[in-house]
Amino acid sequence: MVVTPTSSPLSAATAQPGQAPLASSQGLELRRENGQREVFCGLTSIVWLHRRMPDAFFLVVGSRTCAHLVQSAAGVMIFAEPRFGTAILGERDLAGLADANDELDRLVADLLQRRPEIRTLFLVGSCPSEVIKLDLAKAAERLTHSHRGRVRVLNYSGSGIETTFTQGEDNALLALLPLMPASDEEQLLIVGTLADAVEDRFMALFGRMGVPLVRSLPPRRSTDLPPVGKGTRVLLAQPFLSGTARALVHRGASLVEAPYPFGVEGSRDWMAAAAAAFGIGAEPVAAVLDPLVERGRRALAPHRDKLAGKRLFLLPDSQMEIPLARFLSRECGMELVEVGVPYLDRQLMAADLALLPAGTRICEGQDVELQLERVRAERPDLVVCGLGLANPLEAEGFATKWSIELVFSPIHGCDQAGDLAELFARPLSRRALLSFA
Ligand code: SF4
Question: Which CATH number describes the domain made up of 285-436?
Fold first, then answer.
């Protein structure tokens, strides 16, 4: 899907469109581009959020294109009772001939009557709802009032005008944040959706290290929101939650600085930093983590053999590119040609940036044609990119990895390091087989 150029919320600098390096920081080469982008919009995040909170419903207020995108991103969702849907804005709504609010109210009343288990209803804005300036914040307020005691109605934007692929989750969490109660109780708050089994594993490990209380956001039940306050240490599990992180800090929480938990090194440092934030000494941490590190390294070894020395180009898509680049270069021996990222949040990326090899080229934003030209000129062994670019690049002879797969797969933690490396080794093996045939 082609999204017209926008400025990212965290990129306040006024660089001209162009490709000259803007700055050098920590020995890294930083560029910024602002042209046509090829990324999924924030509606995509509904695919993992609706699995995380089964008592929530995500109602996209958009067009048939939006409905098609969510359906395709989710694969063939043959649920008897799906937990997302689209209120399709028809031509009459778009032309202002019908009152879209009346139709929305009717549709929501009908949905809630049919689905008594829904506890939180998210109205998700789209490009069409923004173009006709449908005020979903007001609609959410009105619907919360008319269905008081039965359901909470919240709203956020997943529009491609405002969001990239993973920012939808950031916006959804920001919508939940005002409902989080205030408390200064000491707790570790893991922020960002994890696969349930991975989260259970982290909870058990933190418990064994002696972290007193661990909670997560988003919760598994949309109404079980964790409290937040001065005793809260926020540990980000995903690198695309800039708005949520800042809003939690605004509520009194402090941010644990650590690399993201991808690979053995990142996962170990992530858990160790959280333990240190509670004053837990190195010994109990090592007792828990050392066997995991050992096992993780063993699982990684066969994939490292395939990946070492291979050249990697990451196009901007998921916002996970910098920590993945750190993992793939340091633990898998890959050579980084370029690391693209939709927007560069230096604070949230600081620990991972510091671990990148000197001279790594980082490109913030996108001018897709120029980036593709660089891909063709550099002939990397592997390109990590969005779905829309993968097929054309494969047709040109490049091995590709879909970045969307990295958001849907359980890749966090030492236990998953081998599987994570395998996700990148697989396309190389496939291409090697094809060229052999
Ligand atoms: S929100 Fe915008 S970019 Fe996303 S599917 Fe709808 S029209 Fe396309």
Answer: 3.40.50.1980
